[in-house]
Amino acid sequence: MSTSHTKAVEQFDAVIVGAGPGGEVAAIRLRGQGLRVALIERELIGGECGYWACVPSKTLLRVTTAVSEVRHIAGLKPPPIDWGAVSGYRDYMVRDFDDRQQVQEYEQKGITFIRGEAHLKGPGRLEVAKRIVETPHIIIATGSQPRIPAIEGLEQAGYWTNRQATAFTQVPESVVILGGSAQSVELGQMFRRFGAAVTLIERGSYLLRREEPELGTLLADYLREDGVVVELKKEAVRVEVEADGTRVVHLNDGTQARGRHIIVATGRAPRTYFLGLEEAGVEVTEHGIRVDEYCRAAPGIWAVGDVTGIAKFTHVAQYQARVAADDILGKPHPAKYNAVPRVVFSDPEIGAVGLTAEQARTQGLEVVTAAVDFARTLARPSTYGKNINGRLGLIADKKRGVLVGAWGIGPEAGEWIHLPVQAIHAATPVSTLRDMIVQFPTFSESFFYALQQLDV
Ligand SMILES: Cc1cc2nc3c(=O)[nH]c(=O)nc-3n(C[C@H](O)[C@H](O)[C@H](O)COP(=O)(O)OP(=O)(O)OC[C@H]3O[C@@H](n4cnc5c(N)ncnc54)[C@H](O)[C@@H]3O)c2cc1C
Ligand SMILES: NC(=O)c1ccc[n+]([C@@H]2O[C@H](COP(=O)([O-])OP(=O)(O)OC[C@H]3O[C@@H](n4cnc5c(N)ncnc54)[C@H](O)[C@@H]3O)[C@@H](O)[C@H]2O)c1
């Protein structure tokens, strides 16, 4: 019998913790099959992606890319940037940090939305906002947060993460960015093109450490052409603030970088600390919640998205959400990650999928590669504008006669990289791909020419 001290227990078929891209897709898919679903979110529906990551950064980058595109076209002059209008559109795209309409839409769908931070309280039981919910199926979709390196003076000096770096109201005069991967490259080029002086500090020997090294080298050249100072093989060891607010970042080679703000973009850590996961039998490593190929983390618990640390992309969070939801619905199919697209929205864009040549060799494959230089091979670059170039590389397993990886840099790479994405996903034989007809003059023709070169 319940007393005034005992909380009423609410029962659901499934409870999803975190309403980022992963949590949203899982909730809608399960509700679509008639399950009683609760969706718990401690901040805003849409997660990091919707407010402080993909959406604002791509909205802002589109402006600087469009202006730059004009520079390449004969007879056009770059228009001035109206920052008020730009930031107004960014604010519209992040819904002015207001998700009331989303809450209503979920309720109309019959999903119970609960605002608050969820804590696991035993098998199938969660506490949130002074409510107790029970369910046989919990999906953890709590995302990731910035990994802050231990650098003397950094905490005292203060720093920006992706949150401040996508929600800023005035373009700073200068920034120093720590890290040299997707976040830093996108933010660095964006700030530079909005007029800030930018220094980017990466401890590795090339940018985009998970990609084909050639991509990082080409990208560094493009960033330097924009005026970004790219410092490779360097690390920050100490930070101090001068009287006028300038942050001075001392590097391990005795040099320094100076800026009004420091942006920390040195990777992201899983958001797991408050959930009580270990007690529930979930294994948590520094990369995230360990899951099997069905996104199962423990009996009655699934995990999807950044919190798994498998591949921190919105489309992967959404894919894993479909995998976990289908498992719960009794239609299991294992997750496959061999054809995940990885796009960096720099200018020119970077697209990649599958293995690098080095990774393929490490796996013992009989690796053959081919690469195509756009300006030398295609008609599209010169019809697109002046001084347009790009490159596409393919990596194949000669023994199986299929592609296992691809990388590209050039205008719209984020679109045409999906040709190899589909080929790798479907394991289409190279001999079949070679017979494909590709529209003239497009950047996609590079795929056709690279295929002809492959020794498969
Ligand atoms: C600057 C930047 C740009 C990016 N750009 C892209 C891009 O262009 N394309 C792309 O694919 N990826 C991009 N990413 C990565 C992308 O943002 C993430 O992969 C994606 O947000 C992961 O989705 P998720 O659902 O796993 O987590 P999140 O989006 O982090 O959402 C998790 C949600 O869970 C909530 N939560 C956490 N703990 C609890 C709790 N205990 N109780 C209740 N709620 C909780 C959080 O408040 C959050 O809303 C970018 C990342 C950054 C930092
Ligand atoms: N377009 C996109 O899809 C997109 C854009 C931005 C971010 N993301 C995702 O967000 C996640 C986080 O991105 P990220 O770029 O922060 O992380 P990352 O883990 O990809 O890269 C971090 C980089 O910081 C460097 N680094 C770490 N500590 C350092 C230090 N003390 N000094 C100098 N360099 C240091 C590392 O060598 C590495 O190159 C990624 O997994 C990425 O997939 C995706």
TrEMBL record:
From what organism does this protein derive?
Ktedonosporobacter rubrisoli
Any idea which UniProt keywords this protein has?
FAD, Flavoprotein, NAD, Nucleotide-binding
The residues that hold NAD(+) are: G179, G180, S181, A182, Q183, S184, V185, E186, E202, G267
One Pfam family matching this protein: Pyr_redox_dim
UniProt KW Cell membrane keyword: no
Question: Pyridine nucleotide-disulphide oxidoreductase dimerisation domain location, by residue?
Answer: 340-447
Regions crossing the membrane: none
Task: Identify the domain of life.
Answer: Bacteria
Q: Which ranges carry the FAD/NAD(P)-binding domain?
A: 13-321
Q: Which cofactor does it need?
A: FAD
User: Which protein family is it in?
Assistant: Belongs to the class-I pyridine nucleotide-disulfide oxidoreductase family.
Lineage of origin:
Bacteria, Bacillati, Chloroflexota, Ktedonobacteria, Ktedonobacterales
The signal peptide, as residue positions, is none
Q: Which cysteines are joined by disulfide bonds?
A: C49-C54
Binding residues for FAD: K58, T142, G143, S144, D306
Paste the cofactor note: Binds 1 FAD per subunit.
Q: What is this protein called?
A: NAD(P)/FAD-dependent oxidoreductase
Instruction: Give GO MF terms, alphabetically.
Output: flavin adenine dinucleotide binding; NAD(P)H dehydrogenase (quinone) activity
InterPro entries of this UniProt entry?
FAD/NAD-bd_sf, FAD/NAD-binding_dom, FAD/NAD-linked_Rdtase_dimer_sf, Pyr_nuc-diS_OxRdtase, Pyr_nucl-diS_OxRdtase_dimer
